[in-house]
Every structure is written in structure tokens, then in C-alpha cells.
Amino acid sequence: MPNEAPVIGKVAPGCSPHQQPPPTTVSSNTDTNGSQMTQIRLTVGDQSAIATLADNPTAGDFADLLPVTLNMSDLHGTEKPGALPRPLNASGAAVFTYEVGQIGYWAPGQDVAVVYAVEGNGSIPGPGLIPLGTVISGLPAIAAAGASFQLRIERVS
Prior knowledge:
The protein has helices at about 55-65, 140-145, and strands spanning about 10, 40-45, 45-55, 70-75, 80-85, 100-105, 110-115, 115-120, 130-135, 150-155. It is mainly beta. The chain has a single domain, classed as Cyclophilin (Beta Barrel). A hairpin with a 4-residue loop joins strand 6 (about 100-105) and strand 7.
């Protein structure tokens, strides 16, 4: 539209669909306090990403659902959502700003979303997104997966 300000946003490094994603590596599985963090693998075809789960009841319920394979799509060139087979415990505190690498639960749609780019101020409409985790490596594999794909999510053993 002619009177709208240009959209300025962020895209994760290496997330162009025209580039091969960098190799997946795992640097650590402890948080800054030295506590063990649960890691998960998100796999698209033969490409994988690694994420750490958040420490909240919703992320715990999500972990209990694993392993799971979801039908994913692309939403606005910023996130990849997919419906879960059942609702999660939605008692985790919601956030109202998107962040690149964020994995969140959208309770109204029973969806998991992986954020790979942020447009504008990155605001999330109510009721917000409940954090499930953060992708720590391999995000370009998910960003480049296309408009319709299957995503397998499982615990890292």
C-alpha cells in the first residue's frame, strides 16, 4: 500500500532459501547456572536443527508428547507453524514479542511455531505465544523447508 512505512525486520543468519544451511553442531546442554537443559532435534528431510526446551509447564507437556511428526506450513515468511495432535497445558507465561529462533505454542490453534524471521516490531497478538524453547543451531534448515513439509521433533539422546 502506498502510504505504509517500509517493513524492517530481522532474518536469522544463513536463512536464505537459496543457500545451504551450515552444519549442525551442539555447543552445550547446560544453562548459565550449570543446570541440565533438555535438547530436542527438529528434522526436515535429511537436515536437522537442535533446540533447548524452556523451563515451564507448557514446554514440559510438549516434551512428554515427543517424538512427534507435524505437518508444517509457512506463515508470512517469518514462522513455520504446525498443529499438534492434542492441546498442551497452557499455564506457561505468554510473551508478546517474536524472536528469531523462538519455538512457541499458540494455544488458540493448538500450534507449535518456529520463528525464523521478525518483521517490524515483532509484536504477537493476544493471547501471546508460550515459549517452548530456542533453536541453538540449524535454523536455516527449517527456514528453507518451503511452504509445506513434515517436521519430526524428538529428544536428543
